[in-house]
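Justification of computing resources. Each target in the renewal requires a structure prediction run like the one illustrated here; the chain below, 319 residues long, is used simply to show the kind of job we budget for.
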Amino acid sequence: MREKKINEITSLTFGLIILMAQNFCFANTNANSDFVVTKITQNVYSIVSPSKGLPNPENKGWNSNVHFVVTKKGVLLIDSGSSESIGNKIKKAIKSVTKQPIRWIINSHSHADHWFGNAAFSNTAFEIISSNKAFKTMKNDGQPSFEFYFKVTKGKIGATKLVYPTVLLSEGTKRNFGGIDVELIFSNNAHSPGDLLIWLPKQKIIIGGDVLSSDWMPMITEHGNIPSLISILNTVIKLNPDIVLTGHGKPTNLESVIRDAKLLSSVWEQVKSDYKKGKKTNETLETVKTKLGPKYKLLYKDFNSEIERHINLMYKLQQ
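Resulting structure tokens:
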């Protein structure tokens, strides 16, 4: 029964991670290397994971990025890693650039690799923020998800106390954190229920969790909403950010968002049209590869391996 429950969680909460494991081009970087802080601009930093894909014994579960903003009154942390031990390493890395404590955490969404590290900051963070939908998913899937992580890492994830968000949002809002203006934007379930994007208007930086992509194809899931994903990408384009920070992969720019919006729009419209005509997925795949392949296989590391999954999922969502 326990194994069945874990398998159910694997197919839902960890849908994104599994897709990454199946389709991403894995890096050979040593996932046990130091947590390196990259300065993005004044007071804004990233810690980019060198590992992509499922948590495993080698990466000890560390497979997602975190970003943070140093303010006059403390650090605003966006996502917290995928275990308490990873959160502690993130905290140590942050201390290498500032003595300010982590006062606020924003969990961009409910996938475990983005919030299991919350416990490492519970002694200083007085607000952990998420959407209400993401919170409900965390509460429902948290413990089985941890059991899954513990299993696939062979216990190297270590002990992790599940610390849930304390401030729940039901709509977008604007906040000021220690003198830094921040806008929290709802994606309307683009990638998963209740995704949040974080917009720093003065710095012109958008932090998108798994709604935004850099090197790889857009991360669509069965529990996401593709029209909403296309819509939020177009919203981000209108914001005209100078810098785009993602949940996985290196920092990027507006061109990546434009690329993703155009690709998804083209494939979605092709699928809708072909589905109405009674065509099969393999026919649509050949059409898309012929029309879009020459351009987009040069823009994504995983176009050839991932486009078929995109089309199959889009067909399923037509039913």
